[in-house]
Amino acid sequence: xxxxxxxxxxxxxxxxxxxxxxxxxxxxxxxxxxxxxxxxxxxxxxxxxxxxxxxxxxxxxxxxxxxxxxxxxxxxxxxxxxxxxxxxxxxxxxxxxxxxxxxxxxxxxxxxxxxxxxxxxxxxxxxxxxxxxx
Length: 134
Prior knowledge:
134 residues; single chain; 17% strand; alpha+beta
């Protein structure tokens, strides 16, 4: 108790009035809810995806290719990046959906998890009021 009182004497006079004041020096600094900082691996993956999109390589990219570009094993990429809700949120904001893409491998045709652009609404959507069927 003596040590706590000694710490109170170092505080400004406005705070000294609170005798039951407890100070937690180990608490994390406050951040606003909107200011989330993305971890390095997620940031690198998003940069690769943005570069892929900017250079126009196609509509879809497989997670294994992203993992290879950032120098991360595919297994770790799936656990640390692809399943992270912040990564999924960033992909949604950029207009991507998580899909299964066809992929050619040494063993033949396979399917792999990846992302693709969200399909825009078709201009040729069927008219629900039409009396004909196609």
